[in-house]
Every structure is written in structure tokens, then in C-alpha cells.
Amino acid sequence: MDVLIHLFVGLHIIGIASLLGGFLTQMKAMGEGTARYTPAMLHGALTMLVTGVILVGLNQADDQSVNNIKIGVKLALLIVILGLVYVKRDDEGVDKGLFGLVGLLTTANVFIAVLWT
User: Is the pTM of this model over 0.85?
Assistant: First the structure.
């Protein structure tokens, strides 16, 4: 079971890397007002959602404790990120505030995962 959990943790990290990497590659465009949500950002967020749900299930099946409040906060942030990225995915340019919000929420999600014990 540990190998399976570690596999999905790795996939979860790849998802967050895709989401955050897509955001960081658009930082220059954000300054110019031409930033857009890339497919990598959408796919990364979806990967995080799917692997996160699987990880919660695997940890509960393995009788490990799961901090449901932490998971709920992370899920709420991810749903906001997914909503913004999905709705605006075809727009040629995204408002700086909305684009920055996705980066802020993604970064907050990382710090919640690492620091909330």
C-alpha cells in the first residue's frame, strides 16, 4: 500500500508542478496584460484533484489518520482554481487580478500542504 500511496503523491506533485509552472511561464505576459490560462494549468489542477481524492481514500483504507479540515481547505482552494482556469481557458487574455489569484491560491495550497501538520 505504501508504494501505491507514494506513486500517487508523486503524481500529485507533478500536477502542482504543472499548475504552478504554467502560471510562472505566464508571469511576463501578465505584466504585459496578455496572460492566459494554459492547458498545462488546467490539466495540472485536474491531476491534483483526482490524485488528491485517491490519496485520501488510500490513506483511509490504510488506517492512517487524515486531517479532514486540512483536506477540506485544500479542496476548496483547488475548486476555486479549477473554476477560474476552466471558465477562462479559451480567453485570449485574462485579467491580471484573476490570473494572480490563481498563482496566489496555488502557492497557498502548497504551503498548506507542507506547513499544516
Answer: yes
